[in-house]
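Explain the record.
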Amino acid sequence: MEHVPSGQFFANAAWLCCAVLAHDLVRWTSLLGGLVSEGTGVVTRTVGTQLLALPARLVNRSGARTLRMPEQWP
């Protein structure tokens, strides 16, 4: 929000479209991922920590990259 208003209508309109798109993507991701039910709110940080964050490391074994994850991860 620190860059709006920029003084140019089309720059503000593009910024608003990007903000609305990001909001909609977070809402759809939370609904499809089962974080919230229909009609309740969600915080972007919640979606990031519960759906997108993965406690794993990328290791290189004999030239092949593998993703090592905990066995108890859902």
